[in-house]
Each structure stands twice: as structure tokens, then as C-alpha cells.
User: Fold this.
Amino acid sequence: MSKLVRKAIALCLFALLAACTAPATNGGAAPSQPQAKAPPEMSRPLPPDRVREAPVIDSRCKVDADCAVKNVGNCCGEMPACVNKDSPTDPAAVQSQCAKDGRMGVCGFRQISSCSCNAGRCEPGRSSMPLQSPSETTP
Assistant:
């Protein structure tokens, strides 16, 4: 091989060797160029909304007179159901819990005209109407 080819190969090998070495450090001294400032700390997210717990609905009964039609609420809004006449209900709490959890409900409900006690549970009476959408009900 000619001297020129040997020198070219040696130069290429030297360039490859130099590219693979670690960069020089300054022995732990402060860097000569100022480093970019860290971005400002992000603000913390807002605290979660305080949502009151929806009450536990009691549907137990002994006689028909223990039952009543009450609005127990759902993610869409109004939801009539047969429950114990003394059972607490809070439709607004149900809706706020749905909003907090990002849940949606199936809108529409059966019109309930009466309730009866069946096997210890309040249930809609047989004269209840078929499924109604909220837009079909009168306020």
C-alpha cells in the first residue's frame, strides 16, 4: 500500500477513536458556562370538590304503608323509586357524586303511581306506567 493510503486509514482510525472517548471534565469545578435554569415548579392541582355522600336508601318494609314513591336521583337527575317512607334521599348528592366520578346515567324512568311491600322490599305497584323520558314528564 502506498504511504498516502496508510496515512488516510490512520487518520480515519484516529477520528473514530476520538469520537468514542468521553468528554473532558474540569475536575468537579463549577462549569464555565451557566447551565439553563430549571423550569419553575408547577402549581399543585386544586383540591377535589367536597361532595357529600349520598344516603343509603332503605327499601325494607313490613306492610304496603311502609313504602312511598320518592325521588332518589341518578346521574341524569330525577329518579322516582319505591323506598321506605322514612328512608333519607338526597338526589343532589347523587348527582354531585356522579359529576365528581365522571359518570353518566341512562336517562328515563318508569312513572310510579304506587308502591307495595313484596317479600320485605318496597316495589312499584302493578299500576305503574311504562318507561318515561324526563322530557315527557310534566314539571
Q: What stands out?
A: DSSP finds two helices and six strands in the chain. The beta strands are 67-71, 80-84, 109-110, 115-118, 121-124, 131-132. The longest helix spans residues 3-19. Residues 64-136 form one domain.
